[in-house]
Design brief:
By secondary structure, the protein is an all-beta fold. Strand 10 and strand 11 form a beta hairpin. The termini are far apart.
């Protein structure tokens, strides 16, 4: 662990990828082989797409993402003396959330009720008015439940029913 270089007086509001409430949670149901992180691994707390083989999952895609990679003790620290990790290594199991309330970091400022969009290049979260996806993003069906400034934890809530 490196030498501490900052002091935080309070705990953060939430941790990216963690469940924000005990409201009903839904997961994407995998096939008999489960979901596995694809080439290069999969980032946690962002959206992901199941690939054509039905098993591999990547943080890139062109259509609506299949789900959000939630924290389910699936990130593994593989670097010697690594402090933290938010990547599921290639070949390891992946869990995708299809609904529920989850903490994420948005690259844009977020307000309650805004639509949540996924960047097709890396699955990161952006927010904005419904029906107007920013360039390079796709609609997710999720909405902002608790807003915040860009780069700070917000809560998004998934669709109430499968889409």
């Amino acid at each position: 662990m490196p030498f501490p270089n900052s002091v935080h007086y309070n705990w953060p509001a939430g941790f990216p990828g963690a469940w924000a409430t005990d409201n009903p949670r839904r997961f994407v149901v995998p096939g008999p082989n489960g979901f596995r992180a694809g080439a290069g691994g999969v980032a946690v707390a962002v959206f992901a797409w199941v690939q054509a083989d039905g098993v591999s999952v990547l943080n890139t895609g062109a259509t609506a993402p299949n789900g959000l990679v939630c924290r389910a003790q699936q990130g593994v620290m593989t670097g010697f003396l690594q402090d933290a990790g938010m990547t599921v290594p290639e070949g390891f199991g992946v869990t995708l959330a299809a609904g529920g309330d989850v903490f994420v970091l948005s690259t844009t400022a977020a307000s309650i009720g805004q639509a949540v969009y996924a960047a097709t290049a890396d699955g990161t979260v952006q927010t904005g008015p419904a029906g107007t996806p920013p360039s390079g993003t796709v609609e997710t069906g999720w909405v902002v439940a608790r807003g915040g400034a860009a780069g700070l934890p917000i809560i998004i809530t998934g669709p109430a029913a499968a889409v």
